[in-house]
Amino acid sequence: MSGRVRLFGVEIDSIRMTEAVERIVEWCKSPQSQCRYVVTPNVDHTVLLQHDASLRAAYGDAAMVLADGWPVVLASRLLGKRLPERAPGSDLAPALFEVAEQFEQPLRVFLLGAAAGVGERAAVNIERRWPHVQITGVYSPPLGFEHDDDENQRILELIRQAAPQVLMVGLGAPKQEKWVHAHRDEISADAALCIGATIDFLAGEKSRAPNWMQRSGLEWLHRMASEPRRLCRRYARDAWVFPQLVWREWRTSH
Q: What's phi and psi for 227, nearest 5 deg?
């Protein structure tokens, strides 16, 4: 079994995408009482983790932590804690859908997140492209829902009634990780994947960077160009803080 490496205060699975998918398939075939969930740290998550105790707790209890973003993978190699490859949530969901025919029945999936109507379009696209996947529920929660106990219980009941094997949570970080962590004992699914903007990508609402930009570690540039008002300040902060974290990690380990 692949191990974990400790970077920036969290444990990250040293694992390839194919192994991650195999593990999720096993979870679905051997369910437990508590929902097992996946988080995917990128540079922004790494920065947030340094001062957000509740996010660190969510990461600490995650069943699988997959490196999202080439800067995290490259930093692991510079620090002598080599991660084999990046495994972003936006690739994890399609990779899981690709192997859904392994199940005797269609893989049941619930989509939680994205704007109103986006999840429905994603559901149509998913079922058209992957016939062995069945979207059993879609819900776009209102702004601030995480602070509303009645709304949270309504969401959990919708998931229970839909009986998915996999819950895909696209609420953005750190909200999605904290919400899944807080409700992991109540989520009626075998696995929950915290996947950011993946529902938007699957719906065609947002476009991913070209493959050459993904392979060369420039996907962040495409995203920033697509949403400059929302992302420029965040990326500027991350570009300032992340190298300092790498330097601090290097000094600690040498």
A: -135, 65
Coil/strand/helix, residue 217 = coil
Residue partners of 169: CB distance under 8 A and separation at least 6? 112, 113, 176, 179, 180, 192, 193, 194, 195
Residues 6+ apart with CB under 8 A from 243: none
CB 48 within 8 A of CB 174: yes
Structure tokens at 54: 């509740």
The rounded distance, in Å, linking the Cα atoms of 92 and 40 is: 10
Number of domains into which the chain is organized:
1
Polymer length of the chain:
254
Average pLDDT of 165-180? 97
Mean predicted confidence (pLDDT) in 24-30? 95
Q: Over 70: is that where the pLDDT of 214 sits?
A: no
- Residue written as tokens 């009634």? 161
User: Amino acid identity, residue 71?
Assistant: P
pLDDT value of position 209: 52
**Residue showing tokens 């692949």:** 2
Read off the pLDDT band of 49 (50, 70, 90).
very high
Cα-Cα-Cα-Cα dihedral sign, residues 59, 208, 244, 248: positive
The domain in which residue 38 lies consists of 4-253
Cα–Cα distance for residue pair 57/47, rounded to 1 Å: 15
3-state secondary structure 110-143: EEEECCCCHHHHHHHHHHHHCCCEEEEEEECCCC
Residue type, 76: S
pLDDT, tens only, 134-151: 999 999 999 999 999 999
Q: Cα(215)–Cα(157) distance, rounded to whole angstroms? A: 40
